[in-house]
Structures are given as C-alpha cells and as structure tokens.
Amino acid sequence: MLKLDSVLSSSTFSSRMARIDGDLLLRRISMSVFHLNPGWRDLVFNLVSKEIKVRYMGAALGFAWSLGNPLLTTLTYLVVFTWIFPTRQDRFVLYLATGMLHWSLFSQVVLMGCEWLTVNSNLLKKIYFPRLIIPISGILTNITFWAAAFIIYCMLYMFLGGHPSAAMLGYLIIWPAYVAFCFGIALVFSVIHALFRDLRHIVDVLLPLLFWLTPIIWAPSTLPPQIRPLLSANPLAPFFFSFEAILHDGSWPSLETTALCLLLGAGTLGGGLLIFTRQVHKVIERI
Asked: What distance in Å separates the CA atoms of residue 156 and residue 223, rounded to the nearest whole number?
C-alpha cells in the first residue's frame, strides 16, 4: 500500500491537474460531505477535478459539451410534439424541459455509476482509503455537470412560462431525495458491474424504455385510465410528478407523493450503502 500523502503529491493528483472554473465550489462540497481528515477531502476534490478536466480535454467548447446531448434531445422532442404530433399539454415546452433536466441527472448517474469501481480499479488496489470516496466523487462529478444545465433552466424558466411560487420550497425536499434515490441505484450497479461486465450495456439498452415509462413527455391526465396505475408503478414517477407540480404547476406535491419520494430516496440509499460497504472489498479482489 502506498501512503496517501505520496499519492496526493504525485504528478497524477497534482502537477497534471489544471485548475478549472468552480474549483472552490467543488472543494466546499467535498468538505461538507466528508467530515474526515483533510487528505480524504483532497482526494475527493482531486478525483472530481480530474474527471471534469479529462472528459473534455482538447475540446474547443470544453465544459459546454455537457449540455449538448440533453439540449439536442429536448429540441428534437419539442419539434416532434409541437409541429409533427401536436400535444395539448399546457406550456409543453416548460413541462418537457423540466422532465428532461431531471431525467438527464438520473441517466448519467446510473450509467456512469456502473463503472465507478472498474474504472478506478488500479487506484483501489494500490492505495488504502475509504472505498465510498470513489462513488461520492462520481456523484459529485455528475451533479457538477448537471448544475450547468440547471442554471440555464433557471435563466429561461420564466421565458418558458414558469411562475415562481412558494411551492418551490418543496424542491428543497424532493431534489435531495431524488439524488439519494439515484445514488443508491448507482451504488448497487457499481458492485454488480464489477462482477458482470454486461450490466452497463443492459442499462444502456433499457434506459430508453424507462424514459417512455416516465412522465417526461406525457402527463397522467392525457393517458387512458386503464394504464395510469401501471405507469404510476414506475419508482421514478413520484419524483417527476413532484417536479412537474412544483416547477410547472406552481403547486405543492401531495403529502402522499412527498412521503413516497422521501421513502424511496432513504430506502434506496440505505440499501445501496449496505450492499456497497459489505461487498466492495470482495469485489475489488476480483476486478
């Protein structure tokens, strides 16, 4: 095992890491997540910074490319359901943008989460540190990219037909539960993928199906009554119902929906942490 101090001072974690915009924000986030010694917090910060820099290294637009795929997808659906197959959904552009924004966070966390352990296998084998640092740095990376899209969404919110309301306070309850839900699933997938490498490809294939089963383009009121209960069984549905209620309708989610979101978030995160902490050491030996 190498000492952490020597690793942090090596070229891998210091000299090769250029400073990027938002470094101070990332450091504050990592410090708030880890009430551990500064070495672990620095490792989280360095892993997040490295991933952000490497992902778009050499690209002319750099960080802006993180907005390319969700923006193009949103525009495609907007054209289809505005001019080709017109929808009667109230303020459809806002409804679609709200759904796509939060779907992009889920899909990226779940997809990238599959490879958290396998991509960092050399680091995990050579250095001792709390193994949970790897997935936490991964989720922080995804949130950092997602935050750029969220800022643009906020800037265009009123232009798209949104109306600020007191219900937005509910977002401070639903969004953390949603992140916990995404993180819990990604923790489980990271362990499974280390043993079964086909998982990421399976997830990649099934995500488009889950997309159409989630209230992103369609609203429950537009569906035939007989299939509404089936689609509402999707565990993502309560979160998206809540996001649309808060950001599109300007109303508070029902108490039942809010409680379900909190239960799903806490339960999934708790289960994910339990599986990860119990299996990660066995999995590392087999990577």
From this structure: 29
Give the span between the Cα atoms of 177 and 173, in whole angstroms: 7
Residue 114 has pLDDT above 90, yes or no: yes
Angle between helices 171-195 and 133-156 (to 10 degrees): 140
Cα of 217 vs its chain's centroid, Å: 19
Report DSSP letters for the chain, one per residue: -B-HHHHHTSIIIIIT----TTHHHHHHHHHHH--S-HHHHHHHHHHHHHHHHHHTTT-SSGGGGGGHHHHHHHHHHHHIIIIIS----TTHHHHHHHHHHHHHHHHHHHHHHTTHHHHTHHHHHHB-S-TTHHHHHHHHHHHHHHHHHHHHHHHHTTTTT----GGGGGHHHHHHHHHHHHHHHHHHHHHHHHH-TTHHHHHHHHHHHHHHTSTTSS-GGGS-TTTHHHHHTSTTHHHHHHHHIIIII--PPPHHHHHHHHHHHHHHHHHHHHHHHHHHHHHHHH-
48 against 85, higher pLDDT: 48
Using an 8 Å Cβ cutoff, are 44 and 34 in contact? yes
Q: Which pTM does this prediction carry?
A: 0.82
